[in-house]
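Notes from hallway chat w/ T.B., transcribed later so I don't forget. T.B. wanted the structure written out for a chain they're using in a teaching module, and asked if we could keep both sequence and structure tokens in one place. Agreed to drop them here.
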Amino acid sequence: MIQNYLSFLSKLKANNNREWFTVHKKEYDSLHGEYLVWIENILQKMKDLDDALQFLSVKDCVFRINRDVRFTNDKSPYKSNLSGIFSNSGKSGYNSGYYFEIDSSGEMMVGGGQYYFHPKDLWRVRQLLVEDASPLRKVFDNPEFQKTFGGLTGEQVKTSPRGFSLDDPNMDLLKFKNYVTLTKVEVADLSDDQITNIIVSKFKVIKPLIELLRRW
């Protein structure tokens, strides 16, 4: 199913307009229905892994194919990737979560963390890091985490956050605007089950980071 869906998305990427999509809507609906079943399988595995996800449904984990074009020069109406998020705040992004995205060429990003912070919440996290960064460093120092993700991959400020000393020994962590880590995996030739196993295995590795961010 995934490979067929990616093939459809590749054609959509080359014909990203409402006229083409309307003609191929039945094909999309069929593929997307199978995709939701696949997501349900991953969600059940994640509920076994993380008790905080028990209340989630599939609709909480998938995004619409329509793009928000209000604030971008690219007015292409449709997304050309598959993605899913598993967070105890659903798709709102207010809490940490597990995330994957597969583009139409078959390259997958998988990982997670917290993508968005209210300013006051980011300030609180930075204050906690100033006081004691060891819980976060312990997550990063885990050999399996190092092998899988290495470290954070989120956006950073250029110098130091306002109100924090550039000389702070934890400035390497304080600079981040969000706390996210992702790794890339080529899945173009893999089966649905193989992709599922890769996603869940990466999510198991990142779980300590997700749980720490929830507590913070």
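Follow-up for T.B.: Residues 2-215 form one domain. Might be a good example for the class.
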